[in-house]
Amino acid sequence: MTYTAQELNTKIVLSHLEEAAGPGGDRTRSWTQYAEAFAKIEPLVGNEFFAAASTWPHVPVKVTMRHRQDVLTSDRITIRGEHYNITSIQEIKFRRRELLIYAERNPLQ
């Protein structure tokens, strides 16, 4: 593993976008929370920052968490009240033990 249990010290909220029909037939979209988890959060610096092709005000982060099969790149992560759009999800060593997620802060919130 690339982390110890004590490093998973930040609570995150995973949400997905749902679309529903309103009473007048119009469509409404809203984020629905489907899970909470503890994760290791690291800012991307140096080569990782440039490899992520990020531009200001998109602040990239690397999130390491226990494996979940229901996390998608269309989902959103909320960390300490700030929303991050998932850009990439990778299984580390393909062992289904942990996920490495790259995400960028959503400047629009």
Structure, briefly:
The protein has one helix spanning 47-51, and strands at residues 10-21, 27-43, 60-66, 76-79, 82-91, 98-105. It has 109 residues and is mainly β.
End-to-end separation in angstroms reads 33 Å
The SSE order reads EEHEEEE
Show unreliable segments.
none
Helix/strand structural class: mainly beta
How many domains? The number is: 1
pLDDT averaged over residues: 85
Give the helix tally: 1
CATH class: Mainly Beta
Strand content: over 45%
Tally the beta strands: 6
Radius of gyration from the alpha-carbon trace, in angstroms: 15 Å
Helix share bin:
under 10%
Strand order of the largest sheet: 1-2-3-6-5-4
**In the CATH classification, which architecture applies?**
Beta Barrel
Describe it for me?
Helices cover 5% and strands 53% of the residues. By secondary structure, it is mainly beta. It has a single domain (5-105), classed as Thrombin, subunit H (Beta Barrel), CATH 2.40.10. A six-stranded antiparallel barrel has the order 1-2-3-6-5-4. Strand 5 (82-91) and strand 6 form a beta hairpin. The protein starts with 9 loop residues before the first strand and ends with a strand.
Features:
109 residues, mainly beta, Thrombin, subunit H, six-stranded antiparallel barrel, 6 strands, 5% helix
Layout of strands and helices, then pairs:
Elements lengths: L9 E12 L5 E17 L3 H5 L8 E7 L9 E4 L2 E10 L6 E8 L4
Antiparallel strand pairs: 1-2, 1-4, 2-3, 3-6, 4-5, 5-6
